[in-house]
Specification:
Layout lengths: L1 H20 L19 E3 L1 H9 L3 H12 L5 E7 L3 E6 L1 H10 L12 E5 L11 H19 L3 E5 L7 H13 L4 H8 L4 H18 L4 H13 L2 H23 L7 E2 L2 H6 L2 H11 L4 E2 L9 E3 L12 E4 L7 H12 L8 E7 L5 E6 L15 E7 L3 H13 L3 H5 L1 E6 L2 E4 H6 L6 H6 L1 E3 L10 H19 L5 H21 L7 E3 L1 H4 L7 H20 L7 H4 L2 H8 L2 H10 L2 H10 L3 H21 L8 H25 L8
Parallel strand pairs: 4-5, 4-12, 6-11, 12-13, 14-16
Antiparallel strand pairs: 1-3, 2-3, 7-8, 8-9, 10-11, 14-15
The protein binds one RNA strand through helix 2, helix 6, helix 14, helix 21 and helix 26.
RNA sequence: GGGGACGUAGCUCAGUAGGAUAGAGCGGCCGCCUCCUAAGCGGCAGGUCGCAGGUUCGAAUCCUGCCGUCCCUACCA
């Protein structure tokens, strides 16, 4: 509704500018005034024209307003200050529009399929808080895009053949002296990812003390790549088991995937060979005869704006491909440009019936949906990979896929570090450098950091205590489920409230808080809205027929109250917030809006008892506001992936 | 050396396609539960938006320089 009026104003003013002033190149900007008393929208257009027309902005504004005349849904256009045009909505019209359900909801889904790749955790150890930021950011992006009508495919890339897995294989084989069968037995036990977490740290420490043992890593890598022998078998067991652990961790947060493309298939199906051919044919890479990169195939630095002497090696002099090369092949596949596809098999079925597929190197018996062939690709990867992501896009560009390079979006975010206090709580020794920085880097290699599942457990425990203190009479299993939902709300909100470019110095006190700007605060507002309506129903009352009682005149009467109008207006801006959030690539904006929406509802809740209202029209209005707030809160929370508990 | 991000209240952060009196949460202080759950609500205190110039009707926002912090810049994977 808000957006409709915005559009109408923009069109009307643009047309007026064109017809009356012959101005076409000035975009009609709309702002939300700082002061609510100025109206709902403001147009600074007169300022933009002042210079060109050599005329005082205020006079221009007056002429424009006179020329524009009446606009549907707008009660008044006022000149304010030096030349602002302030817009006052027709409140009754607006509210009736909301009551009827905005037609903006029914707009057709536009554009082709979007692929969002996120999580991408090395399958060699338990997930930690840093991984949570990636997955929550990615999953929320998916929900945002879907809410805006886009078709989205969610991918979680599994590097099951890399060094990280190889290192754990080394641990089992050389340090622990385990046979593949023994490893398989361990892998079947719970918390295998925790066991590997420690083992991985031990292997890293071992390398440090005995650098000569790094040859074990090379052996393991070769074995894994060849896919034969005990080492490969252990790698296979470890990667699969840990991958399932990660899926389990993410499932706790309501995060799931459509397909898991694996590095092993990219290898076995020779995606790289195909891409290599393309890159050579189209001159995207060149063979170096001499110089420091002699014998290598490189992408010239000029292709991706790299500095001088910064050509990027794609194929090493020994003929093996670097990661970027494989990433280019993979990115080509995502756009359906490789001319090759994976095979697939169903991996598991989620509780809601959703099937998660995994790639395979041979045909399966079941027919998968069509994967890949996207028109737009979001890679949710931390900011440190910016350079490599640039090279990948440059690869597409060099192949002539300008459009796809443009649509390859590196959805970058900053790291999660540990606050000094959190690091101290985890028993980390703080160096002078750490103290100066003010935070400590998470390091999987050192086994340093808070495991995702531990954090979720802590949150659930805290929430359980809170729930239990408020509802001691309720069945324990039910309290636990409510606690779980609150924990998810707290964690997801915490990870989303920061903008992407902000380093999160993870702090337990902040993350475990349920008060103030937190997920539970927003959940609580939704719970309160539901509670009012439940109480109403428990009295044996039915909801009034809003459409017939709340006529336009009735809405006008009720919304003459500035309080009500501001509350309704705030509640109606969910779509505006979503659109702005997608355009800006910033899920934090939706989170902020959810918080503001909750604040607005809490004000409403506090100031206006609904059920005890005596006047029938006023009561109907309050009940309608309650349902509207509830719907908007629930919708916004679902975009954030935050559940609404039955009570709190 | 080159590239990028950042510097806003005691703390953690919003706010930048230039706009009206710079916001929130936490922490601090003072209030509010015979009335739909106080995980709530109200109030007070707290800021030369790193510094200096420039652009203009107007700058936290754009440009330049400086100071400071972090990240990236391998034939490792």
């Amino acid at each position: 509704m808000f957006h409709e009026i915005e559009q109408r104003l923009q069109e009307t003013f643009a047309r007026c500018l064109e017809e009356k002033l012959d101005v076409r190149d000035v975009p009609v900007a709309l702002e939300e005034p700082r002061e609510a008393s100025f109206g709902e929208l403001a147009l600074p257009v007169a300022f933009q024209l002042a210079r060109r027309l050599r005329k005082a902005p205020r006079l221009i504004a007056q002429d424009l307003v006179a020329a524009v005349g009446a606009v549907e849904g707008v009660a008044a256009l006022e000149i304010a200050g030096n030349g602002y045009v302030n817009v006052r909505f027709d409140r009754g019209y607006y509210a009736r529009g909301l009551l009827a359900g905005s037609s903006a909801e029914s707009r057709a889904p536009a554009g082709g399929k979007v692929i969002v790749e996120h999580t991408n955790i090395n399958p060699n150890k338990a997930a930690h808080v840093g991984h949570l930021r990636n997955a929550i950011l990615g999953d929320t992006l998916v929900r945002m895009l879907r809410a805006s009508g886009r078709r989205v495919e969610v991918q979680n890339y599994i590097d099951n053949t890399g060094v990280q897995v190889a290192d754990v294989v080394v641990g089992f084989h050389h340090l622990e002296k385990k046979t593949p069968a023994q490893v398989a037995e361990l892998a079947a036990r719970p918390k295998f990812d925790y066991l590997c977490w420690d083992l991985y740290a031990r292997v890293s420490a071992h390398y440090k003390e005995h650098p000569e043992s790094l040859k074990w890593r090379q052996q393991a890598l070769h074995a894994i790549e060849a896919g034969e022998g005990e080492l490969a078998e252990i790698a296979h067991t470890v990667a699969n088991a840990i991958m399932l652990c990660h899926l389990g961790t993410m499932r706790r947060l309501g995060i799931t995937y459509d397909v898991l493309p694996r590095e092993s298939e990219i290898l076995h199906l020779e995606f790289w060979a195909t891409a290599f051919q393309l890159l050579k044919e189209r001159g995207a890479i060149r063979y170096e005869e001499s110089g420091k990169n002699a014998g290598c195939w490189v992408m010239p630095a000029s292709a991706f704006g790299g500095g001088e002497e910064q050509d990027k090696v794609i194929v090493r002099s020994d003929g093996t491909v670097t990661y970027v090369g494989k990433d280019i092949a993979y990115q080509l596949w995502k756009f359906g440009l490789l001319g090759k596809d994976f095979y697939y098999r169903p991996l598991l079925t989620e509780a809601d019936g959703h099937i998660v597929w995994v790639t395979s190197d041979k045909p399966g018996s079941e027919t998968p949906p069509e994967f890949g062939r996207a028109s737009e690709v979001y890679n949710v990867i931390d900011v440190r990979q910016s350079y490599l992501q640039e090279v990948v896009a440059a690869g597409l560009r060099a192949l002539g896929y300008e459009e796809q390079a443009e649509k390859s979006i590196h959805f970058a975010y900053e790291m999660v570090a540990l606050s000094l206090r959190a690091a101290a709580e985890l028993g980390v020794e703080l160096s002078e450098e750490d103290r100066k920085k003010g935070f400590v880097d998470v390091s999987g290699r050192k086994g340093l950091g808070e495991k995702a599942d531990d954090l979720i457990d802590r949150l659930v425990e805290r929430a359980f205590d809170e729930v239990s203190s408020r509802h001691p009479d309720v069945d324990e299993a039910e309290r636990r489920e409510v606690a779980r939902q609150i924990a998810v709300g707290a964690l997801r909100y915490f990870m989303l409230k920061f903008t992407r470019a902000s380093v999160i110095a993870f702090d337990f006190q902040e993350a475990l808080s349920f008060e103030g700007e937190t997920g539970p605060y927003v959940q609580y507002a939704a719970v309160r809205a539901r509670a009012i309506l439940r109480k109403w129903a428990e009295r044996g009352e039915k909801l009034p027929d809003f459409a017939s009682i709340l006529t336009r005149e009735a809405m006008d009467r009720q919304l003459a109250s500035e309080d009500f109008w501001q509350l309704l207006l705030a509640a109606s801006k969910a779509d505006v917030a979503l659109a702005r959030s997608i355009a800006g690539g910033e899920p934090a904006h939706v989170a902020k809006y959810a918080f503001q929406l909750a604040q607005a509802f809490n004000t409403f809740y506090h100031d206006y008892p609904v059920i005890h209202e005596k006047d029938p029209e006023r009561r109907a209005f309050l009940l309608w506001m309650t349902t509207y707030f509830r719907d908007q809160l629930e919708r916004t929370l679902s975009i954030l992936g935050i559940p609404v508990p039955p009570y709190m």
